[in-house]
Amino acid sequence: MGTAGKTLVFITGANTGLGFEVAKVLLSRPDSYHILIGCRGAISRGKGAVARLIESSPRSTSTAEPISVDITDDISITTAFEYVREKWGYVDILVNNAGIALDTAVTAGRITLREGWNETYNVNVTGTHLFTTTFAPLLLASRAPIPRLMFITSGLSSLAEHADGVSSRYTLAPPGLPKPDTLWFPYRVSKTAMNMLATEWGRVLRNDKVAVFNISPGFLNTGLGDDRMTGESRDKSVMGAIDPLIGATFCADVIAGQRDEQSWPVKVLRKDAIQPW
Ligand SMILES: NC(=O)c1ccc[n+]([C@@H]2O[C@H](COP(=O)([O-])OP(=O)(O)OC[C@H]3O[C@@H](n4cnc5c(N)ncnc54)[C@H](OP(=O)(O)O)[C@@H]3O)[C@@H](O)[C@H]2O)c1
Predict the structure, then answer these.
(1) Please, which domain of life does this record's source organism belong to (predicted)?
(2) Quick check: 267 pLDDT over 80?
């Protein structure tokens, strides 16, 4: 099936988790998308994801293809950019979904605390920004009435809720030492930084009529936080994580333009509320 006339969507980190589920929801809908399934490392991982997507919606009018991109690697970003530029010359929707939380790897002693912090920032902030910077010209070249740029932030990123002590998983530390480096600390700090990133991109692209969204999809039962080096995955539903399909349906609604009236000024959107900064 060709891609002409289809909305071109690029989702980073879409071989698994939320990104994969977003693609799955889009394929199940009547609108026609061509979805670039971003995956880092071997392209076979992306091919496997595309095969599973087609299996989930065999009669879809939408299509998908894998694309290799590691957002911490400038050459990888540029290679992906050149491919999209040469093949289409534009992108309609860019979803900055790739993200990591390395706490398990740090706790297990596989990487140092500094490596954990730096790599978390490298993916969730620096890599996300540089990927966006590289691809922004393709968003501007979109002929869609409203091109969309999306960031996926976290419920843990809210400064206001954290300071008020109402943030999810907020607990006071017991008195005395040691004061451990709290689980999810680098992750939540990086996502707070990403909130500013999204706000900045909203400002920068405002006069180009690109709608910028910062989505807080809820606590989802995905592989986030699992140690990729061991391949061990934990079921987080016992901790209250919900079906990723719920967050994915919300993201797909944003992609489809159902939330456009909420795009400006940039805010943190939860499915049913605005997340306090
Ligand atoms: N799960 C939640 O509760 C939750 C809540 C709020 C926000 N989010 C956000 O949702 C997004 C998706 O997370 P998820 O829950 O679906 O987690 P996930 O299952 O761990 O998926 C994360 C995806 O990002 C990819 N990725 C990691 N580093 C990358 C890099 N350097 N370059 C390109 N891709 C990279 C991963 O690839 P590999 O497979 O190669 O590791 C994977 O495809 C993240 O931004 C996360 O912060 C998640």
Answers:
(1) Eukaryota
(2) yes
